[in-house]
Amino acid sequence: MSGRLRVVQWTTGKTGSAAVRGMVGHPVLELVGCYAYSPDKVGRDVGELCGIDPLGIVATDDVDELLALEPDCVSYMPYRPDFDHLVRILESGANVVTTMYMLSGSGYGEEPTRALRDATLRGESSLYSSGIYPGHAPMVALSASAMCRRIDRLAVLESLDISDYANEQMFRAMGFDLTVDDPRAPVALEASCGSFKDQIGVMAKALGLRTDEVRFTAEFATANQTTDLGFMTLERGHIAGFKGVVAGVADGRSIIECQFVWKLGEDMTPDWPVTRGYLIEIEGDPDVRVKLESPSGHFDGATTTAMPCVNAVPAVCAAPPGIVNQMALPFVCGAYLARP
Ligand SMILES: NC(=O)c1ccc[n+]([C@@H]2O[C@H](COP(=O)([O-])OP(=O)(O)OC[C@H]3O[C@@H](n4cnc5c(N)ncnc54)[C@H](OP(=O)(O)O)[C@@H]3O)[C@@H](O)[C@H]2O)c1
Q: Which residues of the chain have pLDDT under 70?
């Protein structure tokens, strides 16, 4: 590769900050600009916003200014997508990597998807989504499946106490702190799991499996006492945990499963055990089990979410125009990260 790839970071929340930290000193990526959503971040040094030394790059909310930098790629990690921004980025010729998994599928509906695809064709650019889950953990499962002669069921479980991922906006949108009989609770949770439905589609296609339906089931756990998490308060008796499955079903049988146990704290009923990390289980011939865990106890979720996108930037820049999913790229790994 001649010269480093020029990357603009779009927002510096938890995931975006981890992406910036992952790009600093990277041998083939060069951070050249940064978009800020929050007015109080505009004009501030990006390093400072991401908890590291100043980088000499100032965050801006001026989209034209950022596109004038002619980035090879935008690392797009806001809380919600702005389709106007995305179309402008893609039609300018900049590629996009994003942790918003639904952007690579039909998760936001046909019209936005068509607008994004058309923009990639006009700009001869690519849009790619990953993350950890959905994203890279299911890719590890697919990679493990190559060892099998027969697959009866392939399941990925994310099982975490997520109370260190301070994000009241996201947790309330998922239905945390509603009462279990609130009709909004199952609707909110299922909507939040839309990206897993896209993930099931990617996995089924990769496995050559025709699914008849994607089924969603979930249970709720309630807080045993009112708990102040620092960034939000859970009321006693309100939803403090979810356990569920998004399943690809064929001939009435659940064959591909994205499972989750998400807890805000530990003091809840039922108190499902948390395995901390990602458990991949394949039933078949042979049975296979893979555990993704951090020996030091707990994954830094922002890093494991951001890096599958950061590490894909070279492949995404080289990909043909369009919306590309993980099966359309060469194997994404930690290329260029091992240093003597
Ligand atoms: N696939 C995965 O494994 C995975 C895992 C976790 C998260 N995600 C996704 O990754 C994205 C980033 O997650 P995160 O936890 O880093 O998010 P976050 O910290 O809550 O927000 C990211 C940034 O979005 C901007 N923002 C805040 N409110 C917004 C709003 N109402 N509309 C648009 N932008 C807003 C802010 O930008 P400024 O910093 O510029 O103010 C904020 O820092 C989300 O879409 C999330 O769903 C994916």
A: 1-2
